[in-house]
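Objective 1.3, modelling of assemblies. Example input:
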Amino acid sequence: MIDVKLLRENPDLFLNSCRARGYGTESVESFFNLDRKWRELTSALNKTKHDKNVLSLEISRAIKERRSPDAIKDQVKELNERIRVMEEQVTQIESDREKELLMIPNVLDPEVKTCRGDDNNPFLRFQGNATVFREDLGEFMTRTENQGVFTEIDYRPMSHVDLQEKLNLVDLERAGKISGARFYFIKNRLFKLELALINYAVDFLSQRGFSVVEPPLMLNYDSMARATDIETFKESLYKIEGEDLYLIATSEHPIAAMLRDEVLDQKELPLRVCGVSPCFRKEAGAHGKDTKGIFRVHNFNKVEQFIFCEPEQSRDFHAELLANTEEIYRSLGLSYRVIDFCSSELSVLNARKFDIEVWFPSQGKFREVASASNNTDYQARSLNIRYRSKDGNRFVHTLNNTALATTRTMVAIMENFQDRPGNSIRVPDVLVPYTGFDTIGE
RNA sequence: GCUGGGGUAGCCUAGUCUGGUAAGGCGCAGGUCUGGAAAGCCUGUGCUCUCGUAGCUCGGGAGUUCGAAUCUCCCUCCCAGCGCCA
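Predicted structure (tokens):
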């Protein structure tokens, strides 16, 4: 939720943000219309309530002085009826105004480029040495603005779908039989690799000041609605039938909601939290995309980074979150590019967002593996998370970034570290202490 | 799931029986004092707005009443005991 005071003081800030995102400005205009009506009505209402309070005291006094209060009582009854009618109107206007307010997106970080379409997301940097099939060199160099470092190969590596079937690592068919498309059984050494990835990421973040939590996997409507936006409800969330509960789509949401309605001490900030959990997603907006394999699935495990901090520091911590994930992928030996997001591609919550996209040689594409968001005070205001400062209680800023989602990272490992005939997969060196083996297959 | 006890401002607590418009302490901020500090003393310290001799606020909602932290009902969360259970 945005800052109403700031909106009243500086409407242009929000109008410009809406325009840059490609949203209409109707919400802002409609808000001001309703706000004007609300001011007029609450003023009249408060005056009437004041009159009532005065008369009420008068009754108290009359009783003490042994005078009859009946005449005053009748007056108050009349006022009560007027108050009841006015309150109904105010409640309606407040609810309409609130709806408009929730439609107004966060103010963009001034660094965000005004542009549209994910093809135009500004490229920031490339890291690594990618294995690139000759035919994909054009795509690779375009996406890295000719800064990509690569090793050329003259064949297309096996897709993870074929490889995992060949090596008996995933059973999609039976998962489909019992649950449907986009479900999977992970088996054997691939499962141990998954545990290794989780443990590696948790250790990595623990060494960098993060506490670790396994969150509730379901949230009630109120907490979920405050932690996220309408788009997530439409595209991602599974509802539990007959209960006020939703399966989480990321541990970001329970971690953010964890501190809702709390006032933190300034000393507690920054608060770095690492969340580990399954994530459940309907993928409603992705019909036909990535239908095979485990790249896009209805549930997967993810290690998430989350930071609560003071407003002045959120840009620095955004950079820290990005650097952490880059370091994890670099240490795994995977090549990636970092992109900044276009104004039109950001979610309602985001002030700014970076993505990390790893090179998948069999697909011949960079694909998203991590998403680093700075939600400034937007999420914290909805969740009412504040801290005590010299200037009174202020809303914290919240930031999040994937540390590592297991399925996508395993796909990346399968596609980048398979041998030529697709008989085995090399385990990244940093994971060997966790897996206890250095090869899958053979 | 059952029984009992609880939820009051950032924290702790009084008020609830007997309805009359949230008392006090801690912490925090400012002032006074001081060479500087501590202590003491004074002031402020829930939210909203149009900033007032204003309105709202006692876990949430509904009811009774001129008036509810207080009485009634429903819900919720916490604690203890019992039951069930991986």
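Chain A is about 45% helix and 20% strand.
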